[in-house]
């Protein structure tokens, strides 16, 4: 089976954050992966850290904490289930088998996600594994971690953020968080993509390009998904959004001033 994972970027970010906040005595960190199952695939959407202690001789984890936080997560989102666990680093040792045994009690086939938080290969390497039993029937038994395929995807909001920071990396410029300029940049990108689509449609109509039925259906779905709004309705929506944005900025300013006043009062007292 192909194990498909969604929003692994978020899980990897949680692993890095957990690793940076760890105690100095811990060489790695672990946590629970939450998600759902869909037609033989695993979709990972959330994760949380689990306290544990690990030495060369033994390992211990707070199983009560893992169960309690897992139940709270499920109350917040009833579609979430325990689907596996993560660990920082790319090394799988005998302690991993013990931790994996605990998660086997939580789900039938837990996924083990490893994230290279130390960038040993100059990148954040991500691996996914499942365990398979090995041994002789009636004799000693064990398990082996087998790599499985995965795919990294993100939501539209995540893709916008990643595209923004990737542009900073390529251009090597200081970040510009001006909302107006970002909106203008996004509109420019959208217009360029629309021009590409229109150019392709014109070529299909002229017969210079062979039509693709699947691409045509996808374009039709995109066109039908756009709401048919008149100019007045669109203007009212934009004005309403602008008023909400101004209200949030005003409340943010009041909160900042209140914190500054409290800080000064504390200094006087």
Summarize, please.
With 269 residues, the chain is an alpha+beta fold. It has helices at 8-20, 63-76, 94-104, 156-171, 179-206, 213-225, 231-268, and strands at residues 30-38, 41-50, 52-54, 59-61, 81-88, 111-115, 126-135, 141-147.
Describe this protein's structure:
By secondary structure, the protein is α+β, with helices and mostly antiparallel strands. The chain is built from seven helices and eight strands. Strands 2-1-5-6-7-8 form a six-stranded mixed β-sheet. The protein has a two-stranded antiparallel ribbon with strand order 3-4. Strand 3 (52-54) and strand 4 form a beta hairpin. The chain is extended. 17% of the residues are buried. Residues 1-7 have low confidence and may be disordered.
Descriptive labels:
alpha+beta; disordered N terminus; two-stranded antiparallel ribbon; 269 residues; 49% helix; 7 helices; 8 strands; 6-stranded mixed sheet; extended; single chain
Tell me the layout of helices and strands.
Elements: H1 8-20, E1 30-38, E2 41-50, E3 52-54, E4 59-61, H2 63-76, E5 81-88, H3 94-104, E6 111-115, E7 126-135, E8 141-147, H4 156-171, H5 179-206, H6 213-225, H7 231-268
Parallel strand pairs: 5-6
Antiparallel strand pairs: 1-2, 1-5, 3-4, 6-7, 7-8
